[in-house]
Write a structure and sequence with these properties.
Layout lengths: L1 H16 L11 E3 L19 E3 L5 E5 L6 E8 L4 E8 L5
Antiparallel strand pairs: 1-2, 3-4, 4-5
Length: 94
Amino acid sequence: MKETINNLKDYAELAQASYFHLEFIDNRNIFELDSNNEKISDIFYPRKYKETKITLLHSISQKYNTASGFSATLFYDKEKDRFVAGFRGTECSF
C-alpha cells in the first residue's frame, strides 16, 4: 500500500512537471510557491521537500500547452527501466 501511495505521489509530480518548459530548466530545481509566490517551507510537508529536481536526461519528449490546453511530457525512469507519461490540462483559449 505504501509503495502504491508513493507511486501515485511520483506520478502527480510528473503531471505537474508537464506544465514547465523543460528546455529552460537545464538541471535546476523547481521550487513550489504558495499563493503569495513565496517558497513553501519544508516543515509543512511530510516528505519535507518542496522542490522538484528534473534533469533533461529524464525528459524524453514534451508537448507544451497547445491551443486546446493540452500539456504532456514523456519521462524515462532509469531506476525502474520504464517510461512514464505526465498529462495535464491547462487553460483553454475559446
